[in-house]
Amino acid sequence: MKKIIATFWNECRLFIRDITGMVLLFLMPLGLTIIMALIQDAPFREYQHIRFEILWLDADKGQLAENLREGLEETGQFRLIDSLDGRPLDTVAVKAAIQGGRYKIGIIVPRSISAEVVNSANQVANELGKSLGAAGKLPERPTRQATVEIYFDPVTKQAMKSALLNALDKQLTKVQAEMILGRLSRKMEDLDSTGVSQFNLEEKLQAVRLREFAAGSRKGPQLSSNSVQHNVPAWAIFGLFFIIVPISGNMIREREEGSLMRIRMVPGSYLSILAGKLLFYVLLGTAQFYMMLVAGLLILPHLGLPALVMGQAPAALLVTALAIAITATAYGLLVGAVFQTPNQALPFGAISIVILSAIGGIWVPVEILPPGLQQLAKASPMYWALDAINDLFLRHGNLKTVATHMGILSIFSACFLFIAGWIENYRKK
Questions:
Q1: For residue 256, pLDDT beyond 90
Q2: What fold, for 50-204?
Q3: How far is CA 98 from CA 79, 104, 151, 192, 359, in A?
Q4: Among residues 364, 390, 333, 287, which one has the least CA distance to residue 30?
Q5: Measured distance CA(349)–CA(269) in Å, rounded
Q6: Hey, how many other C-beta atoms are within 10 angstroms of the C-beta on 131?
Q7: How do residues 26-66 score in pLDDT, each as one tens digit?
Q8: Where is the ABC transmembrane type-2 domain (predicted)?
C-alpha cells in the first residue's frame, strides 16, 4: 500500500510541476469535441435542413414543369433561380455557372416533356377504358423518350449528389403519378352508368402508408444518432486515450531522473507501482471524460446543436467510463514501459491512437467501412468503448447490456498491464 500511495503522489507532483500541460490535457480534447460536432453536423443531418439553390430553366412551360417546380419549392429544401444578373437563363448560362462553381445544381426541363407525360397518361387511360368498355378515346401517339437534365458542380461529393438525385427523382415520380391519375379519373367519369363516377384513384392508392416506430420497448425519449450523440462520446473517448502521452512521458522522465528507483526501494512488487499510476490516471481520465459529456449537455446547445442525452443509467455510465479510463491508462503504461525515450514513445503513442480510433468507429461509423475493416475494428478497444456508450445513450441500455463490453475492455487492460509489468521487471534485472 505504501508503494501505491508513493506512486500516486509522485504522479501528482509531476503534474503540478506542469500546470500548463494539465490544462491542455483537458482543454484540447474539449475543443476537438466541440469543433468536430459542429463540422459533422451537416452530414449527420443528411442535408435535411440545408436549403439548396438550383438554377432552373423551364423550356417546357407545361403542366409537369409547373407542378415539379411547385413541389420542389414546397419541400423548403430548394430555392429555384431562373435568372442570372438580371437576364433569363438559357442552356449555355446554366452550364457555365455550374462548371465555374458559381452554383452547385442546375436543372433544365426540355420542351414538350409535359406533352410526353400527358401522352403516356392518355395511353394508360385508353387501355383501362377499353378493358372496362368505356366509350371515347383520349388522343395519343407513339411514346418518345424525354429527359429532365440535371447538372452538378464537378466538386460536388457523391453522397450529396445521391441525396439530391433521390429527392428530385421522388418529386418527379410524384408529379408524373398525379398527372396520370388525373387522366385516369377523367376516364372513369365516362363510366357513370356503372355508378363509379365518384371513384377517387388517388385516395385508393394511398391506403398503405409508412410510419416509423421505435424498436425498443422501454419508455423514454427515442433517440437516433446525430452529430452530438456520436461526436461527443466518440471524441471524448479519443481524448481520454490520448492520456497515454503524459503517462508515457512521465514514465520515461522518472527513469531518467531516478525517481522510479527511489520508489522501487519501498518494499513491494512493481505491480504496486503500476497500481498507483493506474489509480491517478484513471481518476484524471474519468474527470476529463465527464467534463466533455457536460460540455455536450450545456455548451453545444448554445452553438445551435441539440443537447447530449446521456441515457437513463448513470451508474452504468460511471462503470463504463472507469473501464474505458483503465484501458486507456493501461495502454499508456505499456507504451511508457516499451520505449526508452520520448522521441520513441510520443510519436508511436499518438499515431497508434489515431489508427485505433480510425478503425474503431471514432471518425466514421464502422458500418460504412469495408467488411475486412469491420472485423478489424473489433481489435480496437475504442470500438468496444464507443459501442458501450451507444448502448447506454441510444439503446436505453443498462449495466447488464454493456457487461460484455466491460469484459472485453478488462481483457485489453489486463494484457496491457501484464506486458508492461513483465517488461519493467525484466529491465530491473
A1: no
A2: abc type-2 transporter like fold (3.40.1710)
A3: 15, 6, 7, 52, 37
A4: 287
A5: 26
A6: 8
A7: 777 777 777 777 766 655 555 455 677 889 998 888 877 88
A8: 195-427
